[in-house]
Design a protein that fits this description.
By secondary structure, the chain is α/β, with parallel strands linked by helices. 35% of the residues lie in helices and 19% in strands. It binds zinc ion (ZN).
């Protein structure tokens, strides 16, 4: 990291012995409040592409990224209906993965997602037909797969229903990684109660099924990632966390977990925590109680089937909530968790801005909100975890943060 940021950090560390002036908490706002666009907003830089030889006509894009240690690629393929049989799908995936490794030998892993061309609608749309993640050392094994022995490869998913029914949210879903704002929909009294709860928690830690802040007396902060899992980024993010030894809570979108269950299993294997971010990444405010239950329970059930464990925490997409949302979460057995620091990594403000914001907001009992698919976050995560440890703060899961001590 840049030396002057580090110098500022050291000063901050020294200052902590006296009085601590952390950046202000994101205050619970009434619904309709507008959060100013974070300074430094930029479109996500386009990812570099890999060209295959010979070319594969169904390949829409093959992009790659690095976490500073390893490189991963993701191939997106669109199949016309006529060629979407299981044999053809597998063969195509094998061809693209092998050619990607041949074209760029520095890749550590290649992920592939195959959609039906007719109903491809991006990452929030209908599920793919087939996905897989292939580390370089498993290429030989992947190439030998046949439709008869697919289940022997554990980083692969085949859509069980063909044609698969579109799974659409009850109202327009929130594009993942949109501006997060702690926005409460309710009367002024309820809003004031939420703001008071937030202030109380910043002084003494969480007390109920509602988490705004961990215990400020403990040298711990929670590291949380929203919207996971995403192909391309999941292997990079898990690799950085493995190297740094930090544990995180992943707020998983059911739709993403359905198509990439093996990444969710990898998270659990690495002792990270899985939490609920609704099935469709939908804003719950305005839905009926039954629709809210459906979004929460469907994701709970799915995550239980993948990991064997039921999530404990829930975070509302877009940060929009109301008393009804809190009630629905409670009825689904979930504690609602917010954050103390949202550095707006989805706005791609630049690595230095992001890192400065992270360090300014880092506090004992804090909850850091990041996104699993933000390239700049993945690039600086290793430095941030180290810098947090230099000021005496260990980054942990929400479960660890909220354990009574
Ligand atoms: Zn989200």
């Amino acid at each position: 990291m840049k030396s002057y940021v580090y110098a500022a950090l050291l000063l901050l560390g020294l200052a902590q012995a006296q009085t601590v002036a952390y950046a202000p908490l994101p205050k619970v706002q009434p619904l309709g409040a507008v959060q100013p666009v974070a300074p430094g907003f930029q479109q996500a830089p386009a990812l570099p592409q890999i060209a295959l030889s010979p070319a594969v006509p169904q390949l829409r894009r093959l992009e790659y990224a690095s976490n500073g240690f390893i490189e991963a690629a993701h191939a997106l393929l669109l199949l016309p209906r006529a060629s979407a049989g299981p044999q053809g799908t597998l063969f195509l995936a094998q061809q693209v993965v092998a050619r990607a490794f041949a074209a760029r030998p520095s890749l550590a892993v290649v992920d592939v997602s195959i959609y039906r061309a007719e109903d491809y609608a991006g990452f929030g749309g209908p599920l793919p037909l087939f996905t897989a993640s292939v580390p370089k050392e498993r290429l030989g094994e992947f190439e030998k797969l046949t439709p008869a022995n697919l289940p022997t490869y554990d980083h692969l998913w085949v859509n069980p229903s063909t044609p698969h029914p579109p799974s659409l949210p009850p109202t327009g879903s929130t594009p993942a990684s949109q501006l997060e704002l702690l926005a409460f929909d309710g009367d002024p009294e309820e809003l004031a109660a939420q703001q008071q709860e937030q202030t109380l928690q910043s002084e003494s830690g969480p007390a109920s099924g509602l988490v705004y802040h961990g215990n400020p007396q403990q040298p711990l902060a929670a590291l949380t990632f929203d919207d996971a899992p995403h192909p391309l980024y999941a292997p990079l993010l898990l690799d950085v966390l493995r190297r740094s030894g930090a544990k995180a809570t992943f707020f998983v979108v059911g739709r993403n977990a359905e198509a990439y269950p093996y990444f969710v299993r990898d998270m659990v294997k690495d002792a990270h925590e899985i939490a609920n971010h609704t099935y469709h990444h939908v804003r719950l405010v305005g839905l009926t109680p039954a629709q809210m239950q459906e979004e929460l329970q469907r994701n709970n059930k799915l995550l239980r089937s993948i990991t064997g464990e039921t999530p404990v925490f829930f975070r509302p997409p877009g940060g929009r909530f109301s008393s009804e949302v809190l009630k629905a979460a409670k009825a689904a057995g979930l504690a609602t968790a917010f954050w103390t620091d949202d550095p707006a990594d989805f706005n791609n403000p630049g690595a230095l801005t992001l890192e400065t914001r992270l360090l300014q907001h880092l506090r004992p009992g804090g909850i850091v909100l990041l996104h699993d698919n933000a390239q700049q976050t993945i690039g600086l995560l290793s430095d941030f975890i180290q810098d947090a440890s230099k000021v005496g703060i260990r980054l942990v899961t929400l479960e660890t943060l909220t354990q009574p001590r």
